[in-house]
Design brief:
With 532 residues, the chain is an alpha/beta fold. It has a domain at 122-224 and 320-415: Polyamine Oxidase, Chain A, domain 2, CATH 3.90.660. 29% of the residues lie in helices and 18% in strands. The chain is built from 14 helices and 22 strands. The strands form five sheets. Strands 1, 2, 10, 11, 12, 13, 14 and 22 form an eight-stranded mixed beta sheet that branches. It has a seven-stranded mixed beta sheet with strand order 8-7-17-18-19-16-20, with helices on both faces. α2 runs parallel beside α8 (237-244) and α4 (140-161) crosses α6. The relative contact order is 0.18. The chain binds flavin-adenine dinucleotide and 2-acetamido-2-deoxy-beta-D-glucopyranose (6 copies). Its EC number is 1.4.3.-. FAD binds at residue 260. Belongs to the flavin monoamine oxidase family. It comes from Penicillium salamii.
Length: 532
């Protein structure tokens, strides 16, 4: 599928003048005019556009920094197969959550089914354990963690339902019986694999209540059956297909290679200025940029975002999750096992999990394996050269498989997520002692400026399905407001309509009655996706 930048000529004449401090959109007459400006063409932006289309709002524009749709669902060619053709591997999102049979929505996620996405069951129990001397069975620690986690999660449920003070997940796990010593590196490896591998942050850096709630919600509303995407068209193919249901070839509403630099907003409208000098004037805008983009002031807002919004943006955290890919001329590791966990004797999180792709059902005979590092070690790898990182990682492999002669890789690659100016990191997380109220401020609109994306989902933050539900909700809500369907805010059909609630002052906790669709607690909306 090809997407073309088609409006360059039309926009070339757009006058650009500083609009600092002017609360109303400038009336220069040369900006492209549209009803809804969708800022970012990732999952949230594409879903918002589809939701608008479904509500008969066709006058929108999607402004996307890159030359492609999909955002953090992003792949690259890597290595080669027997015929010399490169494999397609995912730099970003890689796992797709299967939907429970009892939800009667087919097995496999609904988009995977719809578009025939090729995936394979990712079995987290299929893990071998290693330390500096090679294979070492400490898998009993995995069971100890699981037992404590179940207790911690129940306690987390009480924090949520009884509106109690949140805490960090490390203390929650310790009180539940999982309290690994800082010198017990096998336990530390299990701790990393059981928590950081998903959240990109350590238990100490994560909210107990919302870490556990997020886990529950994804496994309850989808399942704990995760499928690893191997589709050689790339994971973002499904989102491009979704976009092709409402965008035609050369659709003038799609502006690729368009970097938004300034956004002027008010209660009446929004003007968006782009780096190339073009501008768009809209009645509403939906900002779907990552939390990393917002935290890094990569886009200027005029007037400045209100204090409550700026605080919310800085209070949540943006993790970095880096997959480091290797291809060898042979598969020297036990290829029938999916995961290989390494406990470094000194450093927690040091090249900890090696995942084989050269495995039946994945990319057999590809001789590809990759190791995942998070935050501190992801930043470190980003600062190093490829050669430096490769050397360190190869030393780990040689410790894990001391009896093998390990050749140099024939291909090697990893992304540098914090340096991507359209992402500034991988995905968001909730730090300790957060509250739903705090998150409502992240999600709330500021005048005609709405926010959607992975980070604005309180239930599925960090995930593609979080971005999907948030794009869906923003698109539906804006359409409803535009079409005056919010007259009765008590309508059960729309549940919520109109501006979202925010708090000028945070109270620390939130009553359980606030955990509703209204605040993005999207638990019910799943069944509802196709109804308006
Ligand atoms: C390494 C990694 C692994 C992950 N693993 C999984 C996984 O296994 N499963 C899962 O469900 N999720 C996973 N995720 C998370 C998932 O990718 C995100 O939740 C989802 O893609 C976010 O979609 P979004 O639309 O909210 O944001 P984005 O995809 O970031 O979309 C925002 C868009 O805005 C654009 N943009 C940014 N700045 C500007 C600007 N100034 N002007 C114009 N456009 C701009 C960006 O280019 C981007 O296309 C992973 C992410 C990463 C990085
Ligand atoms: C955008 O913001 C930058 C930095 O604040 C400023 O220098 C520039 O003049 C602004 N451009 C527009 C079009 O508002
Ligand atoms: C839009 O409508 C189509 C057709 O009914 C449906 O498949 C799709 O899920 C809807 N999308 C959104 C975002 O509402
Ligand atoms: C992983 O699964 C494969 C295939 O079922 C099996 O042969 C292998 O022994 C398993 N490995 C572990 C560590 O459980
Ligand atoms: C998670 O689910 C378990 C089992 O249903 C429940 O006991 C617990 O309270 C839930 N925790 C949270 C934080 O929702
Ligand atoms: C892989 O390369 C190494 C040398 O780096 C060589 O010893 C080994 O035989 C090769 N394996 C295969 C399967 O060709
Ligand atoms: C919504 O319901 C509340 C409480 O039932 C009522 O006080 C309010 O007037 C209703 N609002 C509208 C717009 O009907």
């Amino acid at each position: 599928m090809h997407w073309y930048l088609s409006l360059v000529a039309a926009l070339a004449g757009c006058l650009v003048e500083p609009v600092v401090g002017v609360p109303h959109p400038t009336q220069q007459g040369t900006c492209k005019k549209t009803k809804v400006a969708i800022l970012g063409g990732g999952v949230a932006g594409i879903t918002a556009a589809q939701a608008l289309t479904n509500a008969s709002v066709h006058d929108f524009a999607i402004l996307e920094y890159r030359d492609t749709l999909g955002g953090r669902a992003w792949h690259k060619p890597f290595g080669k197969d027997k015929d010399g053709k490169p494999y397609v591997i995912e730099m970003g999102a890689n796992w797709d959550w299967e939907i429970q049979e009892e939800r009667k929505i087919r097995s496999g996620s609904w988009w995977a089914q719809k578009y025939g996405l090729k995936t394979h069951y990712s079995n987290y129990d299929n893990v071998s354990t290693y330390n500096k001397d090679g294979y070492s069975d400490y898998s009993h620690l995995l069971d100890l963690y699981e037992d404590a986690y179940d207790i911690a999660s129940q306690n987390a449920g009480e924090i949520l339902t009884q509106n109690l003070q949140d805490q960090n997940a490390k203390s929650g796990l310790a009180l539940a019986g999982w309290n690994p010593k800082s010198t017990d590196m096998e336990a530390q490896a299990v701790d990393w694999w059981s928590w950081d591998f998903e959240d990109a942050y350590s238990p100490l850096e994560s909210s107990l209540a919302f870490g556990c709630a997020g886990d529950n919600l994804t496994s309850n509303y989808f399942s704990d059956h995760d499928n690893f995407v191997l589709d050689q068209r790339g994971f973002n193919m499904i989102f491009k297909k979704m976009a092709s249901t409402f965008l035609r070839k050369n659709d003038p509403r799609l502006h690729l290679n368009t970097q938004v630099t300034n956004i002027t907003y008010s209660d009446d409208g929004v003007t968006v200025h782009n780096k190339d000098g073009s501008c768009v004037e809209a009645d509403y805008a939906i900002v779907t940029f990552s939390l990393g983009v917002l935290q890094n002031d990569a886009v200027k807002f005029s007037p400045k975002l209100p204090d409550w919004k700026q605080e919310a943006i800085q209070k949540f955290t943006m993790g970095t999750y880096t997959k480091i890919f290797f291809q060898f001329n042979e598969t020297f590791w036990p290829s029938e096992t999916q995961y290989h966990l390494y406990a470094d004797p000194v450093t927690r999180g040091w090249y900890p999990i090696w995942q084989s792709l050269s495995t039946t059902g994945f990319l057999p005979e590809s001789n590809i394996i990759f190791v995942t590092v998070t935050n501190e070690f992801a930043y470190r790898a980003e600062r190093q050269t490829d050669e430096e990182t490769k050397k360190e990682a190869m030393e780990v492999l040689r410790k894990m498989f001391p009896e093998k002669h390990i050749p140099e890789p024939t291909a090697f690659m990893y992304p540098r997520w914090t340096q991507e100016p359209w992402a500034y990191g991988s995905y968001s997380n909730w730090p300790p002692a957060t509250s739903l109220e705090m998150h409502q401020n992240l999600r709330a609109n500021a005048g005609r400026l709405w926010f959607a994306g992975e980070a604005t989902s309180p239930t599925f933050f960090g995930f593609l399905h979080g971005a999907y539900f948030e794009g869906l909700d923003a698109g539906r809500q804006i359409a409803a407001v535009m079409q005056n369907r919010c007259v009765n805010a008590n309508s059960t059909k729309l549940r919520e309509c109109g501006p979202r609630k925010h708090y000028e002052t945070l109270h620390g906790t939130s009553p359980y009655s606030d955990y509703t669709m209204l605040n993005g607690w999207a638990v019910d909306s799943f069944i509802d996706t196709n109804t308006d």
